[in-house]
Amino acid sequence: MKIFVAWALCAMFLFCASEEVRGQGVAEGGGGSATGTKAKCFVRTSALSAGEIALAGDHYAEAAKLFAAQAEAGGPDASRVRDLEIRALLKANDIAGSKAKADAWASADPKSAWSRLARAQVDLRMGNMDDALDGFDAAIAADKCNALARLEMARAFALSGVYASAKRQIEVAHKLDPLDDDIEFFWLATQPRAVKNTEVEKYLQRSVFLSADERKHLEEWKKELETVPSRCHLVNPVAETTIPLEWLHRNGPLVNWGLVVGIEGKNRRLEVDTGASGITLTHAAAASLHLTPQRRTMTTGIGNHGDNEGYVAKVKSIRIGSLEFQDCDVQVFAKDPFNTSDGLIGADVFADFLVTLDFPGQKIKLGQLPQLPGAGVGAEKTLSTGASDDEWPGQDRYVAPEMQDWTRVFRRGHNLLIDTQLNDGPVRLFIIDTGSDLNLVSKDVARSVTKLKGQSDIGLKGLSGFVNDVQDTGPIDLGFAGKRQKTLGMTAIDTSGVSRNLGIEVAGFLGAPTLHQSLLQIDYRDNLVRFVIDRARLHSCVSPGLGECF
Asked: Which CATH number fits domain 404-537: 3.40.1160.10, 2.40.110.10, 3.40.50.620, 2.40.70.10?
């Protein structure tokens, strides 16, 4: 995501098993039950409780209180309700409170499927992916009819890039509990457009608890689903190509790199940003294109001043280097959050290709992804502009023989999260973000590995406005993908909003001071990245205090 830095004295601007379902045991059934080879499961028919309605309406604190009272009253559903209380606390961003409750439960009843699920949910939220997967697996093994355990396993699988396995898990979860709100919307994400349309209508009819605003958003989505989608497709097949990177702007010692993109025959200069998704134009850059708004959007990013409103528009033609795409959606900011370029282009735009961001070489290379085992000729290349209703990927991630030394990442939408060690501390998840002018770290994480030195002279601005309470840290060594980078300090901010939005703890951002020294290769399909550091190719390194040379 775009994060600007303003220097002191300057104006501020800024895997898994391959079973039909992991653990087996559930198949189609009727008459209130689902029967499998190893378990007989009853399908939920009871209406949502008051706590579940509050949870569905994003009233997390209220939901947690209702669940706590219901669990205290006991009953056959007490364990499930107790887990829902922890789920509500996690959504409310009360990580410490949810962890304390889950740890106490796991200690008192370690063999319970529900206590194992609760602890694994906390692990997932904290970014402990391997522990979370083990915990969900143990919960399902202990109770194959546990719909919420299968939902959480599906979420962890999707983050890991094993999409076919995630779909199998959520299909079972939805058969077992077709009324749970979280299950319903994850299941909808995996369905074809026609099924989405039908099911959203059913949801609107039965969900009398929806607020007027929630109902309006769902009705807008249903209207969109009723339209005939157009695929932003490549006009002439291209297996590989190279596109020069343009120097857009210098900010202190940092350079913002971008691409010249032809939109409706007019060139626009867009910053390459792995922390953004699709193509987003500033209002000023879009004005002369006479674009017609099709639907409104809200963009959330770093900052403390609310979401950035905008709209989606259709364009007939987009040219990037030798590539031409037609019938594409782009997003437009209603208010421009920056003036250093005409907008942003996420690297996920090229997700159908193997993407090489060669910053030292000042170019982007697009190549062929490894062929999947048993697959035929590759599908038509598209441009993932980020505004259309995307189809659920049909396969699990594949690590080709030539990519065995690449690094696994986790993916939530366009965000790539990589295991990163700070000093000698535990491994955390950082977002790979070429649009961030700085390497950023969570204040809480920074306190655990170094000292906070007080308010920074640096001003930050992201897509959600200016960032409050920016602090400098003591020295931090960054370890990721087999690399080690020393810094004399980093910039610490509150990352809790980003973590809450993604549903997983984000400890920081690897930004331009690190990434612009690298040749970064990304395989979006298979959740893989590769960093190549060649000191002989570096033109310069960022000044001390932000990031040293490798």
From this structure: 2.40.70.10
